[in-house]
Amino acid sequence: MKINIVRLGIVPYDRALDIQRRLLERRIAGEIDNTLLLLEHPPVLTLGTRGDPANIYLTPEELESRGVQVFKVERGGDVTYHGPGQLVGYPIIDLKSIGSDIRRLVRNIGRVFTDLLDREYGIAAHYKTDKYAGVWVDEEKITAIGIAIKRWVTMHGFAFNVNTNLEHFGWINPCGLSKGVTSLEKLTGREQDMGAVRDMVADYFAATFGCEPVSAALDELI
User: 102-121 vs 194-208: helix axis angle to the nearest 10?
Assistant: First the structure.
């Protein structure tokens, strides 16, 4: 089974959301294979289906002065921050192709990062479920996970803190959990090569899901 890997740069959140929705409809129609988008966003906040605006600490005026938009989206979870240095992945996957099991999908996404952190950096991480869903190093989250499904096809996905400005998480109560966050840069003590990390994530994702990764251009799929 193939999976298209689409490597993008920094993409505005609303543009990425439109891309996801268009690819989702094409995947539902069987016009494209499973696809993983890998990209970054300018600073932005998103509220999931259980999102509480009270978990955003900045006022609308403060958000506007920083050029930060807020989007309400259909993924699970509460409030999440995205920004440069954070690798975001949006899997557009037909669940029927991987056993029709959403828990398995989310668990495997968690495994991508626990395996990568262990094997490539010697960092012990663990995957948590329920309201703590994501990948954690001790009591700090390094990867957030939130999925939406339409007609058995997924969208939204994960956000992996690589060189993320962690001070920006002070704008919110991350995922409504009042917990800490960390990044690969913080854990290793050095800035990471985003391109190299992106390629590792693509490889680990494909291997975890038993897929053959195929590099694809966005205009080939939309």
Answer: 130
